[in-house]
Amino acid sequence: MSDTRRRVKVYTLNEERQWDDRGTGHVSSTFVERLKGISLLVRAESDGSLLLESKISPNTAYQKQQDTLIVWSEAENYDLALSFQEKAGCDEIWEKICQVQGKDPALEITQDPIDESEEERFEEMPETSHLVDLPPCELAKLEEIADLVTSVLSSPIRREKLALALMSEGYIKKLLQLFQVCEDLDNREGLHHLYEIVRGVLFLNKAALFEVMFSDDCIMDVVGCLEYDPALVQPKRHREFLTKTAKFKEVIPITDSELRQKIHQTYRVQYIQDIILPTPSVFEENFLSTLTSFIFFNKVEIVSMLQEDEKFLTEVFAQLTDEATEEGKRRELVNFFKEFCAFSQTLQPQNRDAFFKTLANLGILPALEIVMGMDDLQVRAAAIDIFSYLVEFSPSMVREFVMQESQHTDDDVLLINVVIKQMICDTDPELGGAVQLMGLLRTLIDPENMLAPTNKTEKTEFLTFFYKYCMHVLTAPLLANTAESPKDSPEGSAKINPVCPDNFQTAQLLALILELLTFCVEHHTYHIKNYIMNKDLLRRVLVLMNSKHTFLALCALRFMRRIIGLKDDFYNRYIIKGNLFEPVINALLDNGTRYNLLNSAIIELFEFIKVEDIKSLIAHIVDNFYKALESIEYVQTFKGLKTRYEQEKNRQNQRLSSFCALIMFLLLLDRYRRDTRSLEDDEEMWFNEEDDDEEGEVMAEKGKSEEDFPESYGKYMEAKKVEQDGPKLPKWTSAGHFKFSFSRSAGAANGTSGTNGKSAATPPNPSSPNGSSAKSAALPPAAVSKAGLVGLVDYPDDEEDDEEVEDSPRKRPRLGS
Questions:
Q1: Which of these, 47, 2, 90, 24, lies nearest to 354 by C-alpha position?
Q2: Residue 681 phi/psi, 5° resolution?
Q3: Backbone φ/ψ region at 21: left (φ over 0), alpha (ψ -120 to 50), beta
Q4: In 488-524, where does DSSP find H-type helix?
Q5: CA distance 216 to 223
Q6: What is the enclosing helix (H) or strand (E) of 380?
Q7: How far apart are CA 787 and CA 716, in angstroms?
Q8: Residue 582's closest CA among 602, 554, 567, 608?
Q9: Which residues, including other chains, have CB under 8 Å from residue 167's CB and lie 6 or more apart?
Q10: What positions does the domain Serine/threonine-protein phosphatase 4 regulatory subunit 3-like central occupy (predicted)?
């Protein structure tokens, strides 16, 4: 596998008749059991995966081109090609193919794909008709030769036989010698026949014939023959253009003669295909597929040869960056690199990677910084094209360069800032260059292509760099054209001058900047949010709603729509605080009843807010602008906003009432539990004291009561105050509300208490021997203290009950029987 002779590139022909590279590997021919035959196998040199597995079919037409190419068709509209690194490897595989098909390896093609009727006719042909009999190459026979060439184009097998005949007898060179004779004699009839002959030979689509016709000593005569189209009154002057007008410029002398010859040949063949030959019809579109392949592989060889010549590229870069280089010379160098990069698009991905890495190592990006700052418009345009190739190939490579550059370079000369300034200063009325540069900037700041696993911090680092060093350059025109008006605005006011620039080119530029900022809002959540808040950017953007250019007003509206579409609370509070709906609503009202894009876009903005039910914005709009909007009835958007607003307000009121009631209920429930425990403890203590000897305890009780009177009275007053300030005890009703009920008195509360209720409810018997006056005199303070404890369920709103309690005589509990 390591044999370089077997190293190949695999290509497939796409629907646009362009060759797509499938990879590089090593080819072998071996018997494959599954396919039941000898097959071509190509395994990738990188990982050994199978790139190609194709059985060598006896009926498949294989074609050998340019000594290192083998082309064939696997199926209808599916063409394959193997491009060998060395001629020896191509010859080896070609011999194997011919061996399987039983063909002579000296042939350039094994057979043509032919339909059944053609094959039957071919089988009926005698063996002696292996080649087409060509008339003698003489002036008198030119018409006959032209008829023969034209007649075989409809038959694949006859085209093949004619091609073999032309090659075997050196017929092409003889025909071109006749062309010189006819031109010297001004034989127009003969020249017209030669045009038909040469055109027909090109349509034979044979690489072996192209090698002869496009050689240095033949190609100009071929171009000469194609000048004499019978449909033209006067011949075209293609040779004059190629030899005199078209100049081959060597920015650095190319010493490799083979490379020079290949460049000349490719340019002329491309000229023949694009300029001289008429556009092929639907039936002729496949006639020149080999010519397309011929040009394609020539370009691949040119790029590879230039890339391998390190001395040449080093010299080119040295002159490009040298300050002493003349402007004209630098222009030629830049144009050379532009074409060089265009040719590189034909390389396979691995080789294209190596190509651009070589350019990066040689300093292509610093060179572009210098070139983009030049005054020459052509040079700047070419530099932008080169930059676009680099960005499309590897945005990460460009980002890495500019971040490293920021460490030792001023902000003004950073590559991205240079690109932004080129976009801002584009002199084209249609801003063609600015549009191109805006697309490149969007590619560079797109987080989607910053997800490479090898560098997970690239996104954060680059966006931080961009917003720190570059964003102010990008937004400078926007801020300058929406500047504050110090004359009209009072001190401390943030009012913006409503006068917008009416210049169409400036409006286009601001639209491009807004498009880029809108992209940032969608993809840079954190960085752009901080920038908008710090610069009050949305307010400045909405000034453009006053522009007479509707497309600019729509761009400003689109920017706000993207912000609202994020449904971010920070943005919503920023919009409400700044009253930023005002310019939008003013634009809607100024638009009147006109049914246009601006009207629809503004209504869609409010419809989105309504459908998504963004409550804070709905409340702000209804509170501040509904009076101005309620007259708009051709859509139900604003009435819908009002309805949403009222529904939300009712829900909030209900939730607030329920929440307050619940809090009150929980507080009272907790307090009720504490009061109940305190009452039980005091009653137990009191009844324990009654169990002592009545007479002996009377004086003691009197003394104790007198000693405890200040404390008991203090407890009573404190409890009374708490009761007056305390909330009512709620009860849930069937109507879904809380209802408050009250106890009539402390005595009533005690009267409903379990087993001890009778002590408080039964009045003392004055005739009882146990009810002495000393006892009665000593009891009121204690009784007052008990009433204070029990009376915690009394409430100040029940004034009548309070008066009733205070006016009624105190009831002394019975001490026992």
A1: 24
A2: -65, -45
A3: beta
A4: 504-523
A5: 12
A6: helix 377-393
A7: 8
A8: 602
A9: 108, 208, 209, 212
A10: 144-647
Q: Model confidence at 657, in pLDDT bands (50, 70, 90)?
A: confident
| Residue that the structure tokens 């080169």 belong to | 386
3 state DSSP class of 55: strand
**Predicted local confidence at residue 679, as pLDDT:** 56
Of 36 and 532, more confident: 532
Q: How far apart are alpha carbons 219 and 207 in whole angstroms?
A: 14
Q: For 695-718, how does the pLDDT look when each residue is reduced to its tens digit (9 = 90+)?
A: 454 444 444 444 454 454 455 455
Encode pLDDT of 659-684 as tens digits. 888 888 888 887 777 665 555 665 56
- Distance of alpha carbon 768 from alpha carbon 778, whole angstroms: 17
Look up residue 576 and give its two tokens: 């409400």
Q: What percent of the chain has pLDDT over 70?
A: 74
Instruction: Please state, in angstroms and rounded to a whole number, the distance separating the CA atoms of residues 76 and 161.
Output: 23
> E strand or H helix at 163, and its extent?
helix 156-168
State if pTM tops 0.85: no
Number of H helices, E strands in the chain: 35, 9
- Token pair in block for residue 298: 């020539």
The letter for the amino acid at 241 is: F
HEC profile of 238-289: HHHHHHHHCCCCCCCCCCCHHHHHHHHHHHHHHHHHHHHCCCCCCCCCCCCH
C-alpha to C-alpha distance for 86 and 69, rounded to whole angstroms: 10
Specify the pLDDT at position 355.
86
pLDDT of residue 674: 62
From residue 578, alpha-carbon distances to 498, 574, 659 in Å are: 16, 6, 33
pLDDT at 793: 44
238 alpha carbon, distance to own chain's centre? 47
> Does residue 375 sit in helix, strand or coil?
coil
The pLDDT of residue 735 is 44
Residue 542: the pLDDT is 94
Q: How far apart are the first and last CA of the chain?
A: 121
Measured in degrees and rounded to the nearest 5, phi and psi for residue 232 equal -100, 140
The count of other CB atoms within 10 Å of the CB of residue 671 is 15
The mean per-residue pLDDT over the stretch 172-201 comes to: 92
In the numeric block, the tokens 């009548």 are attached to 800
Element holding 402 (H helix, E strand) = helix 395-405
pLDDT at 319 over 90: no
CA-wise closest residue to 380 among 432, 321, 332, 334: 334
